[in-house]
UniProtKB/TrEMBL annotation:
Its cofactor is Mg(2+). This is Glycoside hydrolase/deacetylase ChbG (UPF0249 family). NCBIfam families: PRK02134.1. It comes from Metabacillus niabensis. SUPFAM superfamilies: Glycoside hydrolase/deacetylase (SSF88713).
Length: 242
């Protein structure tokens, strides 16, 4: 049996993104999403998640967009209280403050009333150190699986991660390639569907592209292709990672 997890990143980034993710789940192939708890639309995302319980929700740990949850992490923010940019954060961040902020985000997720299925990071920051080591510690502590950015022969999680479906490569042809790969190994496919709203245009350079992704993820041809390939759409929880 072949499996595919389709995870929509950035749940909570804006209401438009939230609605796009829900649409991609209700009428498309998205099975899972990860929530940014420090974003303005996080509570809106949670309210939607509680209505659509079949959508699995994990935690999108974030160090690069918005403001922190923890009240005292000065090395993570600029003089206006916002996280440093992606290119600056790792040069300026204190390791202990990264861990404190991530733990605060995880605890906030639970406080919002959801049970997380897994962890990943905004901009896949856990592909670098020291973030990777910190996330591993927290994953063990909270007993949650983590998005595997690279093949790890020692890991019990044999799920391969695919980030191809993004930007100019967010095409039906790319999706076909991912489906073919899923015939051999279970795959988690990252995606970023969404409807465009004012907040998204103002705060994310990846905006109009989300509509394109949404269209492909909900296209009847996409759904039929996956069915004909006998690929089962699953979540981290379905596959027994938690």
């Amino acid at each position: 049996m072949s499996y595919l997890i389709v995870n929509a990143d950035d749940f909570g980034l804006s209401r438009g993104v939230n609605y796009g993710i829900i649409e991609s789940h209700k009428n498309g192939i998205v099975t899972s999403t990860t929530l940014m708890v420090n974003m303005p639309a996080a509570k809106h995302a949670v309210s939607l998640a509680k209505k659509f319980r079949t959508l699995a929700v994990g935690i999108h740990l974030n160090l690069t967009v918005g403001k922190p949850i923890h009240p005292n992490v000065p090395s993570l923010v600029n003089d206006k209280g916002y996280f440093h940019s992606k290119k600056d954060i790792l040069n300026k961040a204190n390791v202990f403050e990264i861990e404190n902020e991530f733990r605060a985000q995880i605890n906030e997720f639970y406080r919002l009333g959801l049970d997380p299925t897994h962890l990943d990071t905004h901009h896949n920051l856990h592909g670098t150190e020291p973030v990777n080591s910190i996330v591993k510690v927290l994953a063990d502590e909270y007993k949650l699986p983590v998005r595997q950015l690279y093949k790890d022969k020692k890991s019990m999680n044999k799920l391969e991660f695919c980030s191809k479906f993004h930007g100019d490569d967010a095409t039906y042809e790319t999706l076909l390639d991912i489906v073919e790969c899923a015939r051999i190994n279970p795959i988690e496919m990252m995606c970023h569907p969404g409807f465009v709203d004012h907040h998204l245009l103002k705060h994310s350079s990846y905006n109009i592209q989300r509509i394109k992704e949404l269209d492909i993820l909900t296209n009847s041809l996409t759904i039929t292709t996956i069915q004909k390939a006998n690929i089962k759409l699953r979540t981290f929880k379905d596959l027994g990672f938690i």
